[in-house]
Queue: 2 jobs
Job 1
Amino acid sequence: MTGQFAEGALVGVLTTQPLGRVLDYRAPEGGCALGDFVEVPLGPRRVLGVVWGGPQGGFDPAKCRPIGRVLDAPPMRDEMRAFLARAADYTLTPLPAMLRLATRAPGLGDPPATRRVYRLGGDVPARATEARLRVLDVLRAYGGAAVTLAELLAEAGVGASVVKGLVKTGAVVEEDAPRDLPYPPLNPDRQGPRLMGDQVMAGDALVAAVAMGGYGTTLLKGVTGSGKTEVYLEAVAECLRQGRQALVLLPEIALTAEFLERVEVRFGARPAEWHSGVTMTERRRLWQMVAAGQAGFVAGARSALFLPFRDLGLVVVDEEHDTSYKQEEGVLYHARDMAVLRAAIAGCQVILASATPSLESWANAEAGKYTRLDLGARFGVAELPDMRAIDMRGEKLPSDRWISEPLARAVDARVAAGEQALLFLNRRGYAPVTICRACGHQVGCDDCDARMVEHRFLKRLVCHQCGATKPMPLACPSCKVEGRMAPVGPGVERLAEEVAARFPTARVAVLSSDLFGSARALKEQIGAIAAGGADIIIGTQIVAKGHNFPLLTLVGVIDADLGLQGSDLRAAERTFQLMRQVAGRAGRRDKPGVALLQSYQPEHPVIRAILGGDEEAFWRAEADERRIAGVPPYGRMAGIILSSPDVAQVFDFGAELARRDGPLRRIGAQVFGPAPAPIARVRGRHRVRLLVKADKGAPLQAALAEWVAQLKQPANLRLAIDIDPQSF
Ligand code: ADP
Ligand code: ZN
């Protein structure tokens, strides 16, 4: 196939509408080509689509309608179509839903919006008013280049009428300019910091890999502060030198601002930014520029993987172990895995950077599929913080206090020295449980299988599952006794009370995602803390992610055992990663750090591994357990989540599915359940889960598709397939 279709020829068009299949249309006047964005009639509507291939057949050719118009947008490249198709197959997502991810550019196909710009005209008067002369001076300084009205008014310090007056005289020319101005170029040859020690070899290896081109994945492992970012920015520099495009994925918007500033220092300009906080206009511009190859460097959220890069040369997944890379709603995909797939199709390098890699990436490196590069010591600091456990069994704390004496003394000492201490507790709100002291009733959410969490700042109880809130009840909703409702257990807000009482003169800051209205407010608070605006920081897991607090020398973990309960096979891995990340916040550069972990089971193997046991031995032991259990990364898994307002229906349907396991048995896969899902009720819908386990090489997706297609779903029942579920 040439990819060109003459007027009237039948072509297959994929639309963004949930029909699940490619539809046949006739090429419009002037013909069309593979990858063209088009507008096609669908019923009474006109919808967005892409010319996906030749005709699919199965339609009456006489009834195939012509394509409405070919949009004025850069056509989708073969590479992107291949990526969407492969991603759809892997995640068992209908193609239209994948296409929607790739067309999140507002106004796709509309002519670029224009705006008025100004430059010096021919009839420049010799004499003019003071204000007019200032305008002319500014334009002269631009040497014939066009300036926007906003810039011109700001620089000349005049009102718009002055400029309009000059336009009338012919001294200034007004014209239209496309809004989509190019991004300022980045200069890869500006001198970055000189790499040192292990950084040199890692940097050289990555630069060489990018220079050589072709696909390859590298796991870049090194403790926080070891210089991973500096090293991968060298690879980005090489990519830019080659004239190719680089993409860096970050797990959180709050981290982007810091990153952008750092890139500006390194390359003289900022990368383009892509995430949910970016304006529509800006997104549109970015999408166009990326497609035109004029945005050389993009930093953003996981959805940036679906941008139409013209010549992708490098993808970096920073903090690759981060759980937020898994999209848990809509299309269920893991950005790390999709980054590797995207790069394999584009034929480019991927760097997965982390201090505490996922077991998946660790195992891929062990198996030789990924190259592994280790950065040893932290830059300028001898080693990891000194980590110790505080055995809480000996502490005899009253039931409403959580800071042990040894931890309190350590905080006192740091604050007295003008340094900062971080108290880490991964629980938002005031108290995780509200209980009636008369009857034992615990307040739960009306719509979810979850306890309501008291939030004192909001003065309400909040469901962390669905966000529903209700006032704190005076009387028990169950036994109606008044005045006996009591908080049980600590959240960061309650810990803040204890800190205020125990350290009355210290300046305290609480960092919890729910306490900030916007990413900007959070960023400002983080900036203020970094600059020394607090003595004691109380934080949830947002503090574990990459933020730089130069004065922080002590980390106290309030409850190191928190993640170890439950039956999830990933609990050990997650706890290890989180504790190591948090501890890594202590001590940068010249100030050595200390991390104290409060635990009721300090002899637990995971706690011991965190405390500086042999890290590789920990990963090997974890790997062995997973291998024996036959679960990822040594086996394959999928979760099937069924949900319905009708609890009997959802269990019956699940049981019937489990009975008809023929297609699964044929590939040697097993099905477990139905069992209540990890969260058994959300927003009034009952949820059950089936887990499917298969051997590593088994054709799981095909079998799953055949399996679930056997049963027709009732209208109010939803079925979602989660390949590689995050908990099992
Ligand atoms: P990581 O990404 O591993 O946390 P960074 O790249 O952020 O580490 O490095 C930590 C700090 O040390 C940063 O402020 C960085 O600029 C600095 N740094 C790292 N390597 C060097 C180097 N070779 N020369 C100068 N400063 C460095
Ligand atoms: Zn709820």
Job 2
Amino acid sequence: KVNIAWFRRDLRLTDNAALYHALKSSRPVVPIFVFDTNILNELPAADKRITFIYDVLEEMQEQLKALGSSLEVYHGTPEEVFTALLKKYDIGHVFTNHDYEQYAIDRDEAIGILLKQHGAALHTYKDQVIFERNEVVKDDGTPYTVFTPYSRKWKSALTPFYLSSYPAKKYYDNFYQQKAYALPTLKSMGFERVDIDFPGKQVKSALIEHYKDTRDFPGIKGTSHLGIHLRFGTISIRQLARKAQEKSEVFLNELIWRDFYHMILAQFAHVRAGESFRQDYDRIPWRNNEKEFEKWCAGQTGYPIVDAGMRELNTTGFMHNRVRMITASFLTKHLLIDWRWGEAYFAEKLLDYDYAANNGGWQWAAGCGCDAAPYFRVFSPARQTEKFDKELTYIKKWVPELEGFEYPAPMVVHEDARKRALATYGKVLKKG
Ligand code: FAD
């Protein structure tokens, strides 16, 4: 009999909860990854994240090869892959880490049933976050919906135990010994390699130490750009949180926001289903003008800070957090377009796209999320620029034509749009 370690958003061989538990068990461990066609079929051929995953898997394969083992990489639905694996191996247990999205919950339930029918079992572990689901709740056991008290409780619950690494390395001898397989090619899966420099995963201490003073200015590299690594688990959250605890409370706070949104997702089925956290907001009569949406997507709104953000996103797959807030506010308030349109666009483009954080960020900006800005607070692009890109460093980088004549006039007048947003939101929410 063998055991299986199933990698998903935890693409690393060190400090990995499920892998550690798999290797500690007494059977040889076959490591696998599935290019899940249920997910892949929705993506464009030039999706940058597929190249990222592919490169990481190749690195993992090199490491496993050196250990006399092989990562088995499959292309298909998880059901198809496990059906084939059950024929290939006499499987005892499958070890994998929790994933809090609805699709993943349904998938894991189906695989659990399939395995059980064959006398095998699925075991799942917390790995992606420090505290999950109901580990940090109010004294009465109900979930927090406001960040500050959640973060206070989070910090008071934190003991070294939660930040300690899983020493998987000790058990590397237990990997199933076989010749290393070649990965299926990107082309065979319908994808093409994208030529892009992905952010590195080295965590610079100086950056974290200065984070509180630099993080709000998109014109400088003042944030870590670790989002993609946290998303795909190429770094361990425990290791990063230890560093944050040592170096910067403000940085640690951002990691707590990450836990917070994962907790919200796990606790509230209606959020997993794509509804507004505050359901009365689903009565807002969005204008949803497609032409206007296209201008926003393309970075042609005539508001330089909004356009700079969208162009950064379209080109690099990254957008600075401050600018994510400004562009999201512009779409939902100035243009009165349903936040889900923006959410979906970000989901397609962001390298660090993560359902929990993206949904949380969009609902925050639209005003309908937990602990969101009140609806009557409408960001002024001009004020935001004045505060956070005073020298126009960021704007000039992405909107160089600003100084010429080709730049479009503002697609809406700020003050008119603000009044329209207040009237539209107000009509629905004041009654509520
Ligand atoms: P840093 O500032 O260096 O922060 C370190 C890490 O902390 C991030 O990588 C991220 O994992 C976490 N983090 C920081 N801020 C937040 C936050 N507000 N909420 C949750 N986690 C946070 N973050 C994503 O990871 N994926 C998304 O799809 C995503 N979509 C967003 C959409 C909108 C509309 C908004 C307003 C925010 C979104 N964020 C998202 C949160 C935040 O903007 C990004 O995490 C951050 O900009 C990533 O850059 P960084 O890695 O340099 O972050």
